Amino acid sequence: MDDLDRSNHVQPSKIGHYILGETLGFGTFGKVKTAKHQLTGHKVAVKILNRNKIKNLDVVGKIRREIQNLKLFRHPHIIKLFQVISTPNDIFMIMEYVSGGELFDYIVKNGRLGEDEARRFFQQIVSGVDYCHRHMVVHRDLKPENLLLDDNLNVKIADFGLSNMMMDGEFLRTSCGSPNYASPEIISGRLYAGPEIDIWSCGVILYALLCGTLPFDDEHVPTLFRKIRSGIFPIPDYLNESVVSLLNHMLQVDPIKRATVKDIIQHEWFAKDLPAYLFPSAAPVATKTDPLGATVTLAIDYDIIGEVCDKFGVNEQDVHDAVMAGDPHDQLNIAYHLIIDNKRIEEEASKLDNSELLMASSPPPHGLSPSDSPFPAQQDPTAAGATTTSPTAASSMATRLPRHRLHSDAGSYNPQSAQLLQQKQQDKQNQQNQSPVPNKTNNVSQQAAGASQPVKRAKWHLGIRSQSKPADIMNEVFRAMKALSFEWKIVSPYQVRVRRLNQVTQEYTKLCLQLYQVDCRSYLLDFKSEAKNTMEFFEMCAALIINLAR
């Protein structure tokens, strides 16, 4: 009997210092389980990824991106990655455990939310999205299914598998995310910078919070895409004009006219009861001027440099040099400023005496050393054959927010009212563009003076502007480059990589030309440096500009 009892007694599974518990759910690449740290008793979630499935589905790059982004992020409303444990068969991602479920299920259960509750959720979401964008990461798959809730109903942004690093001057083209939350440029396969598609998704989420339904929905995908491209959605009578104006600004079909995070933060509806910790002000930095007139930053936090050293396994001088160089894409510099931001957020939060926030905070993360990486250093995600996803195929990525599963109070819908309000808002913006509006912080007398004598503000012009046809502009560019003996490679009809051989050093100076549409009539030719020597880049630009002007 004792032998039988021993044979039936199953030892609990263990990975590292974590004892695995119940299964929370299943995903494409494996399962998610609860676990408890053997020493501290802290409860975590463990995402188990099967290596064979990752390899067969060509998603090495997707998993790598999620790990790289999450291991750097430290924000109260972004899910935390504590540790990555690799075995020959599986990858174990030790993550923050949140027990409140998905925001999707919360909406299904409660129906449309009151304005105050919806605003609180939305403020936390935008704070997390802004944090991502400021650190050059765009999520690309924001939806209620990827927004988790903790015990105190605080939002945690999760699933960064489709996220991507934003590079200055570059555009993205991959069709990502779920169709109902995808922006018009995504479903049309057009180029996009990145932040604007997250803003659109946030607009759809805000609508779902307030209405319990989706602004654009149809079982027939082509019809759904047609609705999204039109930008016309029903507006219930119970929504006040302030939040409707915010929705209209965020759900603009034209990404140039779409709201930015700054626009959202400054909107009166969003700013109401906004907690200070969500958007902490920038910390002052001490500077000095050296004999050559250059400004040198003095405020280096060596405690944080020490943390970065521990995480990346490098010495202090490497981190110090990276911070002083200020390269926005250097991983050491990024990590330093991420920790700075996290420290500032915690300090701001502590001033609020917000007990709920403190209860929702997670324990400090365990650092990831280079040896913790689940992938070999020489492995390239692009070599794994990671494929792009078509808009139609994207519908299978996640369940949509179906109308029959969501409850909303009876209310009359007016599809035309959205269009009228958009036109009203556009007319208001045009009036504002024609006459400068004084800052709201100025007093009445200053406003009156500003209205009587509008101040003409100087405008910055970047690159070369033209009102010619795009094809004619590119023909002139090719003519000028040929006359200057430049060599080039056509990346797309309106993007060219150019190089010129320096006869003295026998090295190439490189730049990238990109033609942008500024408005309905004008275009801008932008110059992006890919050269080591800045002066050689300027000389190359000057030669091209002079030749184009002839």
TrEMBL record:
PROSITE patterns: PROTEIN_KINASE_ATP (PS00107), PROTEIN_KINASE_DOM (PS50011), PROTEIN_KINASE_ST (PS00108)
Keywords, in A-Z order: ATP-binding, Kinase, Nucleotide-binding, Phosphoprotein, Serine/threonine-protein kinase, Transferase
GO cellular component: cytoplasm; plasma membrane bounded cell projection
UniProt-listed Enzyme Commission number(s): 2.7.11.1
Every Protein kinase domain range: 18-270
InterPro entries: AMPK_C, KA1/Ssp2_C, Kinase-like_dom_sf, PRKAA1/2_AID, Prot_kinase_dom, Protein_kinase_ATP_BS, Ser/Thr_kinase_AS
Keyword Kinase: yes
GO BP annotations, alphabetical order: intracellular signal transduction
Protein name: non-specific serine/threonine protein kinase
Organism: Aceria tosichella (wheat curl mite)
Lineage: Eukaryota, Metazoa, Ecdysozoa, Arthropoda, Chelicerata
